[in-house]
Amino acid sequence: MKRACLFIIAIFVFVISSHAQNTARAEMVKQLLALESALLKEDKQKVASYFTFPVADESLKLKVEYDGEKELAIAQLDKPAFLKYYGSIISPDLLELFKHLDLSALKSKNEVTKINVPKGKTDFCQYNYEVNLEGEEVKIVYMLNTRDDIKLGEHDFCPEYAEFWTFEMVKGKLKFKSIEFAG
User: Fold this and answer.
1) Quick one: 32 exposed, middle or buried, by C-beta within 10 A (0-12, 13-18, 19+)?
2) Which pLDDT does position 10 carry in this prediction?
């Protein structure tokens, strides 16, 4: 009898835990889809709501400076600076990621990816898009890499570049955590 009770309790705990994880995942995907919508509509105020100001991650400020805004000389990126430099922070390349991925697929799997290889031979780059759910974090990856399906001439090149964005659930809300970039 004691074993039967322990077995029933274990099943109950498993079911409750599984339901809680599914509910948290559904909420994360729901908020990610809302972020995608705000980004594609270029709703700067709504996008800003996914950031905590001033932004503590120095790399986001460096991204603005790297994009040619050398005069940006503030200690931290506050909301007015975020809105002013929005076009440097949220690049057209990042927006392309959201146009090519079906994020609703994340309701049932941890990752969505796509490699976009242009049909023409004049674009020397391929575009890699990826979104991963890892625990309480959303990882958004955009990479621009040299194509390997065409022969490049001596002066042909792809300006290889990558951005790695991380958002996390904080008190039930999806919030920017960090960015890394290279290229």
Assistant:
1) buried
2) 38
